[in-house]
Amino acid sequence: MKRAISATLALLLILCLFACGADGPAKEESASAPAEESASAPADESEPESSAPAEESSEEPSAEGSSEEPSVEESSEEPSEEVSVEESSEEPSVEESSEEPSVEESSEEPSVEESSEEPSAEESSEEPSAEESSEEPSVEESSEEPSEEVSVEALEMPTVFGCTRLYDNSYVILGHCVEGAVIYYEANGTKYSTGSDHGWFSARIKYRSSYEKVRLWAQLGDAVSPVKEFLAQPKSVGSDKWDIIAGKDYQFHLDYTLQDYLHTNLYTQSQMNALVSTLKNRGERTDAEIIYIVVPSPASVYPETMPDVYAEQQNGDVSKYDQLMEVLENAGVTYINVKELFAQHKDDGYKLYWKTDSHWSEYGAYLVYKELFDHISQKFPQSSPRAFDEFEWKEGTFRGGDMAYYLEYDDEVMSEYNVARIPLFDMPRSISQVRRYVSESKLTYDSDTMPAARTISTGRAELPSAIVMRDSYSTQIYDILAERFDKTVYKSMWSFSFNAQEVKSAGVDYVIYILTERNIGSAFR
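User: That's the sequence. What structure does it adopt?
Assistant: Structure tokens below.
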């Protein structure tokens, strides 16, 4: 019996030892299996070549999210913030986010790092990534490394409402964009940029053919609009229209002012000497004080708005305007150096000039008005200038001026943001009844009323009187100038001949010349 029990125990011991020996190797094999699978799995399935190293993944997460592998629920609800504009418009499905894309899948649907570093030409032509640089990018990629922190919300695509060929072997595209945006555009492999003005912009391009593909987009800070691709077909304007130079930042210039800007029409020294003698002679022939107000052209105050091709052609730093200021100083006459005055105010909140019209603004005219009557009030205190807050400065959008006419655009389409000066005091009826502008919404001088000669009386004998020699720049100062005089004799526009006998017969205290830079040749002979 005992032997049977011993035999039985021995047999159980042998079976137990056999069982333990069989389990030991199985456990070792099971523990080593994950390591072997991980080593054999292709590295490019979890880390594509273009993705950042593991240490960088916390800063620039891949399309799957953070450096930690998210669950299916996390990735389907919260896609990565750093995605391209196109990707952000589609929410990744659970199946896409739960599976780890292979290299082949990654090439079809690139990770954030791939799309932000080098967008494909197709993506760029339809909707550029919000990470494009603020510099002028090329067709396929930006010229600088894209910003890491950008807005994924794209701006509204700019609209284009016209394309016109200009006389100087160029053409201009006109349009509207988000206010404050910079416009970038490409044509025939050349890249450009220009500022906008309260949402309006003009894009000057060298003319090469009557049909040209143009790519154009807007950028405001880090936000970028979709690219607008179109075929530019510049129209031509009538031969009777004045030639226009399309400058930067929606600023237009008359070709008539180009010589003044280039400094190619300078006086000789003998001409300057002769002019000094002429001005002295004028002063000696009358008891009235002669005051000269010559308003520089927009290009003289804002040279940065001229196309680069003209800036490269400038002849030195001295202009004919500068020479004239020297002549006036040497002649000992009274004058206002408007160029210096405007240099102090060129960055004011209100514009000194219109951009779609060839004239100065009512704000620019007010600055000169104040200088003028600050001087006159030294002798006639009652003629001190009206204060700035005695006017309402009404800001708004106004219809385009003479530039719109010369470019043959509907002035309601080619518009501009500016300010109108409205007196808050009772203006004498003899002044207020004179129609200065075409309408309240179009501040271009009325050609039916403004050029004519006219004498305006305010019935205030304590104030001085004046004869005004003028061109169309008198429009913006016409009313406020006459309001500070007892009698104002406005000569017809562009009639600059000085007549000492006429001045004496009129019995005025002042002779005032108001003209723009381009008319220097007519007024000073």
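Residues 1-152 have pLDDT under 50 and may be disordered.
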